[in-house]
Structure formats: structure tokens, C-alpha cells
Amino acid sequence: MPHAGASQMEGCVLVRLSPSKSSPSEASKLQGCVRNLRQIMTCCLTALSGTGESGKSTFIKQMRIIHGTGYTDEDKRGFTKLVYQNIFTSMQSMIRATDHLKIPFQYQDNKNNALLVREVDVEKVCSFDQPYVNAIKMLWADSGIQEAYDRRREYQLSDSTKYYLSDLDRIADPSYLPTQQDVLRVRIPTTGIIEYPFDLQSIIFRMVDVGGQRSERRKWIHCFENVTSIMFLVALSEYDQVLVESDNENRMEESKALFRTIITYPWFMNSSVILFLNKKDLLEEKIMYSHLVDYFPEFDGPQRDAQAGREFILKMFVDLNPDSDKIIYSHFTCATDTENIRFVFAAVKDTILQHNLKEYNLV
């Protein structure tokens, strides 16, 4: 009787069909098996999920860089005004924080600079000229703004703030063209559902990025009945931060709640689950001064130890899985690091394909 088996060899899936005499019904079963295999090996629908600002959109950009068309100079030019807008948004957030947190400016002149920057309608920003360049440079150099930046866990501030504000001379140059890293760092909140297909060794991956904020979830949670896999992103650095929607709720607790909801949905019962513990670089920086135990008292590891911290966070999420037979595949990532994502996704691709073969009893 013919049988189908599969083994993995150097990142590829090798299918063995053993010939023998067979009945028409057995031949039909084999043909169905091959059709299923062809479907598995030609298209994989992946839902990219996680709470707001966990790094989903950055991951999609990396897929375009690594496995897609990348970003031409013309593409990068289209991000120029978004970089400018991110700079104004970040500075306005810190200025408001100095008021709310009662932090005085170091230099009196910066009161006027703050007024100038606060009056800007960010959505209309399409250039970065004087007097705004100088005003933002002076504000960023002010110890009051630096204190507001250090206390950023107490309000909402983009992770890219320091990256852009530390490089204002380059960005303010009239000939400025965003770099690939500038593009990766741009913050654009995702609304609705965005699908990005890319071809990887004759396999079409359809990766779907969905809005992470609470208001966006009801738009997509029912749309993925037949997804091949769920990729769930958690920002490791959010353990001491509060939600955009509610300033008395912890972001990581919200992320845990969403993850628990997703892995217990009947729609995702047969989907592989891949957990990306993202922003490991920010965790390594933050854990030196913001102690995990202050927000998660059950943490009994050493302070200022990023390795212990991330393993604790991983265990918190894995423990949410009620099905002991369902494997949660996990990876620690930095979504702005192209080589890190290239390496991780190579492993993820094989995980997804092997999981699919098992679901169809082909391995």
C-alpha cells in the first residue's frame, strides 16, 4: 500500500512516496495526500498578533527587507515626513510630561522653545526647518527633558525617541534620506488589517498584521479561522509600563490576557503558536534601573539580570497554555535588528512547515 512520509533535510522538506500496487480508493487517498501537501507547501497564512507597540509592524518591515522587495531610495523618501512627525510627537509628549510631573526646565529659554514646539500640528508636519530644529535640540539637551525621558514609563513615549533625537543634525540636513534603520524605527499605529505576502523558496507566506490596541481587536479576532500559525509578539520591556487606553493597567498583564485568549480560541486549535519575546535590547537597558520584582512580586531572581528577567517573562506566558500537548515555540528577538530576525525567521519557517505536515499526518 502506498504511504507518504516526510523528513527534513537542510531546511527543506523531503517527501517520500513508496510505490506498490494499490486499489483505486488507495490511489485516491494518495492523490488527496499529495494535494494537501501541495497546499501546505505553496501557501502559509500567518497571523501576527500582540498588543499595541509590541513590534508587529517592524517585523513586517523586516520581512520585506529580508524576503521581499526591500526599500528603494524612493520608498525611503516616503518615510521622511513620518520621521519628522515622530520627532515632534516625542518632544511634545516629553514637554507635556514636564508639566504633569512638575519637572522644571534647566534653562528658562526652553519655556519659549516648549511653547513653539507644542503649538505644532504634528499631522501637518512635512519638513524640519528652523526655528524648530534648534528649539528641539535645545530642549533635548535640557536636564528637565532628560528627566522626563528617564521617567517615560509614567506616560506614553515612543521607543524610538532617543534614536531620532540623538541624531538631529543628520535628520535636519536638507539632503536627508531615511536609512533602512530609520524606516524600521518609524512608529505608525496599525489600524485595521494589513496583509503582506512574500515568496520564500516557492512558498507564499501571507503575513497579516493586525491592530494591537483594544479598539482594533474586535475587527480581526474572528477573521482567522484557518490560519496556519499564530505569531504573537510580546515587548519584554513593557513590564513596567501602562496601557495607552488605561493608565492604571500594566501593559504586560494586558499582553498576557490577550495571549491567553488567543491560544484558547477554538479557531486557532490547529495553528502552531510562535511566541516572540521582542525588544530584548530595551529590556537589557531598562532592567538595570527598573526592577522587575516591583511590578511582578513573584519574580525571585536577581536584580539587574536581563537573562533571569526574560526567562521569567517567558515562563509567565508559557504557563498560560492550558493544553499540555500544544507546544509553544519561543524566540527572543530584537525586531529592529535585521540579522537577528533573519536568523529567527529561518527557524520559524521550518517550524511552521513541519507543524503543517504533522497536522496532515504527512510526517
TrEMBL record:
Domain of life, source organism: Eukaryota
**One GO term (biological process):** adenylate cyclase-modulating G protein-coupled receptor signaling pathway
Matching SUPFAM superfamilies: P-loop containing nucleoside triphosphate hydrolases, Transducin (alpha subunit), insertion domain
* CDD domains reported for this sequence: G-alpha (cd00066)
Keyword line? GTP-binding, Magnesium, Metal-binding, Nucleotide-binding, Transducer
Please tell me where GTP binds in this chain: 53-58, 159-160, 184-190, 209-213, 278-281, 335
Per the record, its GO cellular-component terms are: cytoplasm; heterotrimeric G-protein complex
**SMART domains xrefs:** G_alpha (SM00275)
Q: Where does this protein hold Mg(2+)?
A: S57, T190
Could you tell me which Gene3D superfamilies the record lists for this protein?
GI Alpha 1, domain 2-like (1.10.400.10), P-loop containing nucleotide triphosphate hydrolases (3.40.50.300)
* InterPro entries in the record: Gprotein_alpha_Q, Gprotein_alpha_su, GproteinA_insert, P-loop_NTPase
Q: Which GO terms describe its molecular function?
A: G protein-coupled receptor binding; G-protein beta/gamma-subunit complex binding; GTP binding; GTPase activator activity; GTPase activity; metal ion binding
State if Magnesium is listed as a keyword. yes
Q: PROSITE patterns per the record? A: G_ALPHA (PS51882)
Per the record, the similarity remark reads:
Belongs to the G-alpha family. G(q) subfamily.
Whom does it interact with, and what assembly results? G proteins are composed of 3 units; alpha, beta and gamma. The alpha chain contains the guanine nucleotide binding site.
Outline what the protein does.
Guanine nucleotide-binding proteins (G proteins) are involved as modulators or transducers in various transmembrane signaling systems.
**What protein am I looking at?**
Guanine nucleotide-binding protein subunit alpha
